[in-house]
Amino acid sequence: MGGIPLNALAIVGFNNCDLEVDVFKEVMRGAVEKLREAKTVLLGGHTIDDKEPKFGLAVTGFCPDGKYVTQSGAKTGQIVVLTKPIGTGILIKALKEGLLTQEDLSEAIENMLLLNDRASELMKSLEASACTDVTGFGLLGHAWNICRNSGVGMRIEFDKVPVYGEAVDLVKRKIFPKGARDNYSFVKDHLKTDLDLWKITLLCDPVTSGGLLFTVDRKKRGELERKAKELGVRVCVIGEVIPEERLEVV
Does the pTM exceed 0.85? Predict the structure, then answer.
């Protein structure tokens, strides 16, 4: 949304009867490293005894100029921009089932470790009118959230969406997390497409630490590519905003 993080509180579920405390220390070390990279601090938090490990951060931020970007500003004719590949949910599912190794996920891990701060800076500099991150609802779920909040639609070109190659092979073999089905159920009544189901499933894959999805005026495409290169942000123009309130995938 264009805010700047100010501080964070950790929320942790951990069972030290089943896991070594060193595992918990590594989780906290990684979190603190990323918070430092984001130029913010960890103030404290809450820890509970939980059979299933959980970790999250409740972050307080602010907008110095009072301006922020929501999901409700997309305008017909704008281009749709995505800043990270999709398919991490499928890769993680395969990793858990022993079908991939951590080395196979090296590119995805590198991208998941990448903060969205520079992507946010890019989005703000271009005066993007609508923005969201791409996480648990998948690309189509988050795209639909922009559409229904803005009263517009999107036409997305499948071949222009950046995806991890291993995820394509896996989803063709029907290996994907249950969340992809849930996300498809969320958007299917608003979806117009003739594409194969595996392609739509991939676009519905729940993403971990995904990039930003934002809309910007078409005339700024050149400026988008120039500034993205300066900031070191990968950008892919994956479609356009259309008048009809629906998702079209071609």
Answer: yes
Strand partners, 236: 82
> At 30, which helix (H) or strand (E)?
helix 21-37
Sign of the Cα pseudo-torsion (61, 65, 66, 72, in order): negative
Nearest Cα neighbor of 124 from 248, 244, 2 is 2
Domains present along the chain, CATH in parentheses: 4-62 (3.30.1330.10), 79-249 (3.90.650.10)
d(CA 120, CA 225): 15
Task: List the one residue out of 85, 69, 112 whose CA is nearest residue 214.
Answer: 69
Q: Where are the beta strands (DSSP E) in 15-140?
A: 41-49, 54-62, 79-82, 130-133
Each residue's pLDDT tens digit, 142-163:
999 999 999 999 999 999 999 9
Sort strands 247-249 and 153-156 into parallel, antiparallel or unpaired: parallel
pLDDT in tens, 173-231: 999 999 999 999 999 999 999 999 999 999 999 999 999 999 999 999 999 999 999 99
Angle among Cα 91, 92, 93 to the nearest 5 degrees reads 90
User: Do 161 and 234 touch, CB atoms closer than 8 A?
Assistant: no
